[in-house]
Amino acid sequence: MKILSFDTSGAALNVGLLDSQTGLFFAHDHNDDQPRTHSTKILPAIDALLKTAGWHYDDLDRIAVTAGPGSFTGLRIGATVAKILASQTSAVLVPLSTLLVIACSASIRSAVVKVPMINARNHNVFAAAFDSKNQAVVEEKHWLFTDLLQTLPENSCFIFEEASADEFKDEIKTAGFQFVERPASVLIDPEVLAKLSIKSAGADPALFVPNYLRKTAAEMNWLQKHPEAKDGDYAKYVSEV
């Protein structure tokens, strides 16, 4: 199975190609990257990897993409590219939780509960907790950080992007938890993302939307102006905007 995997949810662009039968893996080179330039770099990065591997787009069996949470703009970029490529090829689109992939990409001793976390501002975070078998023990959601701390098991270890969560470190230590900081370029391993997609369910490219875990500011403003709208009327919001 030939798999293209990519993540645009954070500061770094992570792209990879995996041949699941041979184990051959090609990864995007971060040396020339600039933060938050995913919209201009992702397609050239994919083209370069395909050329290196000697593959064509039509050779792809799966397209694995982080579905959120994460940067609103970053997630839209990834979702758009994944939807277009899947609709133009026979590849299956496989969206996966950003938090799950962060947890699976981190090498931490098995006795620890892994808590991948993304700063959502205003002392809020996107977070979940996973056991040694990568099963969720605390649900993935948009948390007030103090509420999250009260929910976690004692043996929890936070995992987050380097320098992204400085405001939380003292509270983590006071609560008796551990934390691990990882550079954006390795926070999500595209090889791990690809391997997770092998046994994961695919999605209809026409219906797939990122899992933001909260509404954008623009959508919340729109809902205030349209009190008759039901929660989930995302299509109406997009159409009007």
Strand order of the largest sheet: 3-2-1-4-5
Oligomeric state: single chain
What coarse outline follows from CA principal-axis ratios? globular
Number of strands: 10
| C-alpha end-to-end distance | 39 Å
Kindly state the mean pLDDT as a whole number? 91
Percent range for β-strand residues: 25-35%
> Pairing-aware structural class of the strands and helices?
alpha/beta
Output the helix-strand order.
Answer: EEEHEHEHEEEHEHEHHHH
Helix content: 25-40%
Residue stretches low in confidence (pLDDT < 50, at least 5 long) are none
Largest sheet: 5 strands, mixed
Computed Rg:
18 Å
Number of helices: 9
What does this structure look like?
The strands form two sheets. This protein has a five-stranded mixed sheet with strand order 3-2-1-4-5, sandwiched between helices. Strands 8-7-6-9-10 form a five-stranded mixed sheet. The chain starts with a strand and ends with a helix. The protein is an alpha/beta fold. Strand 2 and strand 3 (25-27) form a beta hairpin. Helix 1 packs across helix 2 (72-88). The protein is built from nine helices and ten strands. This is tRNA (Adenosine(37)-N6)-threonylcarbamoyltransferase complex dimerization subunit type 1 TsaB.
